[in-house]
Design brief:
The protein is built from 10 helices and 17 strands. The chain is α+β, with helices and mostly antiparallel strands. It folds into 2 domains: 232 residues, Aminopeptidase (3-Layer(aba) Sandwich); 89 residues, Elongation Factor Tu (Ef-tu), domain 3.
């Protein structure tokens, strides 16, 4: 059994990392991730031994030249909307990028990403006073909502926006209370932050024996597409995907269906067919050595994360999945505990340093 390292209690009100806040300020719906790429490039490129961006827009920051190659993956894309039609009166109709709860779309301020810059809009639908009792019980379909940019007609609207422009909610980062924080796009700017922050700390401290490739993947929300090409490019011997995972410590959560997971309870480590048993065991060993609490989640099928794509890349990759506990996933106001975020960074660093030269999990 590995010897435990004594660690101090986590701070009650930790500061929010500036790197994370910059990623959250970046608008990066799937397929439109340039603002987030710019943040990663600014923060990581000068420290990494090499920095590349692949054809799908994923960032690859590499440290070291040893063996094995460890891939750390967190996705930089977020949910968004895409403009599909402009009405004669200048209202913009849209479709969803990623999995939205339609009940939460209307009444939001949004930033529309155009070639001329950011345009502010408001999502609208028919007011409740103008609905029949039957309509009030229904969730509006996408085509029954629109974005209002204050245009007087179609010509004016099209002078400001173009079909195919994307939009994101304008819900930025705030501290909620103590270590809890709220923002849109914690899914998965937190994961992208942790994998890149881990590489930065490995570069400054004791170097691992392995080569580390921190990958900020694109287009995860529409089918883990960036991870498919990134895993092929990185060609790892072992990989860890980092994504958010449901905290079920809120009202109306059925633990019999979804398990019991809490904010502040530490990283969530997944077990099941998508995760290599030896990689899971090593994560557990590293957490125990660091004196770090973890939570264990069982998933009987390929997960809805980059791990599903990485695991079956090339000849197969021994893969682990590290979750950051999150409340209110895929809403404009997701909630995390900043102490969980820091624990994930420390776990990734410990895992990288635990790898021995030439080690294989096959």
């Amino acid at each position: 059994m590995p010897k435990k390292t004594k660690t101090s209690a986590p701070p009650r009100n930790p500061p929010a990392p500036a790197f994370l806040k910059e990623l959250l300020q970046a608008r990066s719906p799937s397929g439109y991730e340039e603002e987030a790429r710019a943040v990663v490039r600014k923060r990581v490129a000068r420290v990494a031994d090499s920095f590349e961006i692949d054809a799908l827009g994923s960032c690859h920051a590499t440290l070291g030249k040893g063996s094995p190659t460890l891939m750390l993956a967190g996705h930089i894309d977020e949910l968004g909307l895409i403009i599909k039609h402009v009405s004669d009166k200048g209202f913009l109709y849209f479709d969803a990028i990623g999995g939205h709860d339609r009940a939460m779309i209307s009444g939001r301020r949004v930033d529309i990403m155009t070639r001329k810059g950011i345009i502010r809009g408001v999502t609208g639908k028919r007011a409740i006073h103008l609905m029949t009792p039957e309509d009030r019980r229904k969730v509006p379909e996408m085509h029954q909502m629109w974005i209002d940019i204050g245009a007087k007609d179609k010509k004016e609207a099209l002078s400001r926006v173009t079909i195919g422009d994307a939009a994101v909610y304008d819900h930025g980062f705030e501290k909620l209370h103590g270590p809890l924080a709220v923002s849109r796009a914690f899914d998965d700017k937190t994961g992208a932050y942790t994998v890149n922050e881990a590489l930065l700390r490995l570069a400054k401290g004791r170097k691992p024996a392995c080569k580390v490739v921190a990958v900020s993947t694109s287009q995860e929300e529409i089918g883990t597409r960036g991870a498919i090409t990134s895993a092929h490019m990185a060609n790892p011997d072992v990989a860890l995907a980092v994504d958010v995972s449901h905290a079920t410590d809120h009202p109306d959560a059925d633990h019999r269906k979804y398990g019991a997971f809490t904010l502040g309870g530490g990283p969530i480590l997944t077990r099941g067919p998508n995760v290599h048993p030896a990689v899971f065991d090593r994560l557990m060993d590293c957490a125990e050595k660091e004196g770090m609490p973890v939570q264990i989640e069982a998933d009987p099928r390929p997960t809805g994360t980059d791990a599903r794509a990485i695991q079956i890349s090339r000849d197969g990759v021994p893969t682990g999945l590290v979750g950051i506990p999150l409340r209110y996933m895929h809403t404009p106001s997701e909630v995390i505990d900043l102490n969980d975020l820091e624990a994930v960074v420390q776990l990734l660093v410990a895992f990288a340093r635990s790898l021995r030269k030439g080690e294989t999990f096959r």
